[in-house]
Amino acid sequence: MDNDQIINDLKKLIDIYSTCVDKGIFVYSSIDTLTSDINAIENDDSLNKTTKNQLIESRLGQGKFREKLICIYPECPVTGVKLGALLRASHIKPWRACSNDERLDPNNGFMLAAHVDALFDKGYLSFEDDGSLLISRLCLNDIDKLYVDKNTKIKINEKTKKYLQWHRENIFIR
Fold first, then answer.
1. For 8-12, 41-45, 82-86, 168-172, which range has the lowest pLDDT when averaged over its residues?
2. How far is residue 13's CA from residue 71's CA, in Å, rounded to a whole number?
3. Of 34, 70, 91, 123, which has the highest C-beta tally within 10 A?
4. How far is Cα of residue 20 from the mean position of the Cα atoms in its chain?
5. Among the ranges given (94-103, 105-114, 128-137), the one the predictor scored with the smallest mean pLDDT
């Protein structure tokens, strides 16, 4: 299968995914953002075909990034949720702010339950370098309703700390 066929197949998958989002089957913050990201990858002449395919697969949450994260985090480290359909391969340093290597680096991610992923992406949650949960002042009153234990402490490896520092400085709302 050549690169053009793979890209066409992925575009069909995006259309199917869009339909699922519209029907409320999947929740994605913006299908336009997803499409825009994939188009940017397709049009990046500095990338070879293999890298483009890996990045597109990763952006769709199905590629090497997710596979590596599942091995590291077989469950959400915050909630303990194990059901794969409820877990998101979440970048610590967001996709748009990453270099190509950072996008595929499993140290730049966690497998998070969907609601924890949303809180993390919006800056309502983050982690200290020791793994202690940080909760934004903006959601302190609601965090218990979301079944997130305020005393959560997760394991953080050394290579993940630089991404968490970036997240705390650029995303987390104190």
1. 8-12
2. 25
3. 91
4. 19
5. 94-103
Written as six digits, the tokens of 19 are: 């339909």
Asked whether 53 and 6 are in contact (CB, 8 A), the reply is yes
Residue 109 contacts residue 91 (beta carbons within 8 Å): yes
The per-residue pLDDT for range 26-55, each reduced to its tens digit, is 444 445 667 777 888 888 888 888 888 888
Per-residue pLDDT at 125: 96
Structure tokens at 165: 């520092």
Q: Which two tokens stand for residue 115?
A: 């609601």
- If you ran DSSP here, which 8-state letter would residue 27 be given? -
67 Cβ contact list (under 8 Å, min separation 6): none
Domain ranges of the chain: 1-60, 72-174
Listed residue (60, 41, 61) closest to 51, CA to CA = 41
The size of the chain, in residues, is: 174
Average pLDDT over residues 62-87: 85
CA 114 from centroid of its chain's CA atoms = 10
